[in-house]
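Case study.
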Amino acid sequence: MTFLRDTATIFTREFAPVWRDPLSLVFTMAQPLLFLYLFGPLLEKGTDTPGPAWQWFVPGILIMMCLSGPLMAGYFLLLDLIGGSMERLLVTPVSRTALLVGRTLKEFVVLLAQAVLIIGLAVPLGLDLHVPGVLTGLTLLVVFGIGLGGLSFLLAIVSAPGGELFYGVTQVVMFPLLLLSGVLLPVENGPGWLQVAAAANPVTYVVEAERALFAGRFLDAPVVWGASAAVVTALLGLHLARRRMARGL
Amino acid sequence: MIHARGLTKTYTLKKTSVDAVRGVDLDVAAGQLVAFLGPNGAGKSTCLRMLTGLLPPTSGTARVAGHDVTTEAAAVRARIGYIGQKGGAGEAFRIGDELVTQGRCYGMTRRAARSRAEELLTVVGLDGLFARKPSTLSGGQRRRLDIALGLMNRPPLLFLDEPSTGLDPASRADIWSHILRLRADHGTTLFLTTHYLDEADAMAERVVVIDQGRIIADGTARGLKADLAGDRLTVTLHDPADTPRAAELAMGLPGAADVTRDGPKLTLRVAAADRALPEFLRALDAAGLKADTAESSRPTLDDVFLALTGRTIQDEDA
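After joint prediction, the assembly is written out as follows.
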């Protein structure tokens, strides 16, 4: 019971600034929105992408959002660690796990809201809405997001109090993960070495799974692979962050 | 309130172990105001972080507010307040919301936390600023907000890490008036670290000095100064040739030590300068020696630290 209450307390704290200023949600989505409107139409005319362009591209944008949002979630934790507010919370009897889960929950809600918004905006552009597929896809997305959030929290804790490590790693890791997952252009057209690198990237599998789901295909091999990648990421991220938290900050 | 035995913290930094705190024994009775002094890196903050349950000790035990910090951490946390060196409120949040969050973390209902938050904002002179963000507050206001955050759960024991560092003299005095009022109104036990030796001297009834992870002195400021540093007398004789005779007479004063001669100037340490100086002048007179100037100076806590370690506390801050 206290765990649930503590989780609600931390979620409420983290969510209040978003709640009071909902426009901030849209501002943090600037990049995916630009890709949706300025890059998507380019793909529509091209013939390189397998299947209908929007069905192929919108899942990619969602993953892009998932990488920039949750992966950067640690940034806010880092700010709290560099300032004194994390320490101030740790002095109270609040559950240590709730401190992470409450934050993760906020990322979950924000990501879900942004994903629904992107999908809503993509429908008039030509996205076919396979409702069960989209819902499953959203679930997969937030599971993956939770894992990335956990890893980001871990990175933030390890980087405090300086923070350089956090900025360095997120900058170095984010773009290769993004480009090597075939979010923007199909990897199949690239050279062999790039395809090998893409195959080693867990994000690739989640993207492929999302594309299958958005096309209405459930029982596809990519869905199984992607779901596994997302679940493993989530378990690993949460476990590692929690364990690091228990050691004291 | 605090009973620590053999409290030790060893860090491993780049594969070399650093003994931050080495076997601290400490007892603090309820209602005391204790100042914890020492140069940077002496282990003050590490000690405080262990006593507040933020950092698990490598070895040793501590009972704080009646409970063991390692095995009954939640019970300790419920009964203490802690005001850290850095600002406690997050920049993205309204200060009232931060206070309510803090209250909720102590298990208060939203309504109770809200009314306690309003009450404390009034107590620290921030009433009406509930919806403001920390960035719009002055340095002194931020520190008062930190105090409010540390008091949400009405702790009988409050830890303060450098509560007045970085504030202008007026804000420092203001923060101190809040701290002292806590004690007067609620009998709160206060355990604080400070860099300002004059503050420790004026405010604390007990001073604990830590250096290189060990407690090296513990007592009242007055007692430590009398025992460890002593007052200083400086007398200039009219005729430099008289100084050896004067030095002999000086040795007869109660607690006289470290008698040094420099031309016509004679300096020495005594237990109590206010009594020793007239006595010394009478003795000089009786011996037919003439003094031109005479002055006495009281020691500071820095003199105490110097006497103990051969270094000054401020040395290492540079």
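Observations recorded in class. The interface with chain B takes residues 2, 5-6, 9-10, 12-13, 16-17, 20, 76, 79-80, 82-85, 87-94, 248-249 of chain A (CB under 8 Å). The mean pLDDT of chain A is 85. We will return to this complex in the next lecture.
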